[in-house]
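Sequence in, structure out.
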Amino acid sequence: MDRWLKPKWKATEDIIDGPSCSKQSDLSQKKTKCRKYDVEYLSMGFTCSGSEHEQQPQCVLCYEILSNEAMKPSKLRRHLETKHREHATKCTEFLKNKEQELRQSRKIIKKTAIGSFKENALKASYEVSMLIAKAGKPHTIAEELIVPAAKAMVSAMVGEKAAKDLDLVPLSNNTVKRRIDKMSDNIKEQLIERICKSQYYSLQVESTDIANKSHLLCYVRYEFERNIIEDLLFCRYLIHTTAEEVFSTFNEFLTSNGIQWSKCIGISTDGTRAMSGRLTGLVARIREINSSVVWHHCCIHRESLATKKMPEELKKVLNESVEIENVIKARSLN
């Protein structure tokens, strides 16, 4: 019995499988069929959008983009008659003008996108320059290390196309220097603007030796948004540490930046003659301009003077305490 039935089953399978396979192939071909745009579709209010491989009809009146399957005269005409009934009887010239308006809007959108991309590249350049300045690294590190490392990471994670976009970020040696200088000038302008708007301010003067050169450091304390803020005002190199030169440095900086001496209510310095001299010191020269300035002897200098005559046992304890405190502050976790 099996001998007679087996050929029949095989024949029936061939009969069943044959047409079904051909139908499936026809369906797959129908699904992958891509319709092409025709110029006559403009009379129905549609222009071509999308890529060459997959064109899509776009309405020139409402800018709606339909799928490729909807690129049929019947569907396009139905869209025009149902959604834009008042324009269904308009001439072709009217639709051509609408098409030109659509193309102009596309150009504007494209220019805006390119402009925003350039702005993002400029912003990235400033952010990288700020990181270099904070880390105290040489400006050439951007070209030598940061850009190649960023390209390698983006290429591995996103792709080569995104990695090539990093070439638009300007990070040359001179560019990084200009970025840092501009940010520095901007910070200085903001600080001076805050001091000028503040009702009062006070100064703290500090002189240090760096590489056998005297530098004058000035800190300012002012009021901003109901808070007392303290910032570094300036740092200047001094050829001579006389009271006259220190005062001229102060006076030149404040007057050139529009900061009034009349708003200064206090100054803190060390106890040297050039700073606190009663007749020709810095404080005396400032009081000639503003007699209401109050002078304070810096508490840190007073503590330093007190430790010079401290007993050895107490001095040893103090030094150990300072070392412990420095170790704790040097660790970021603390």
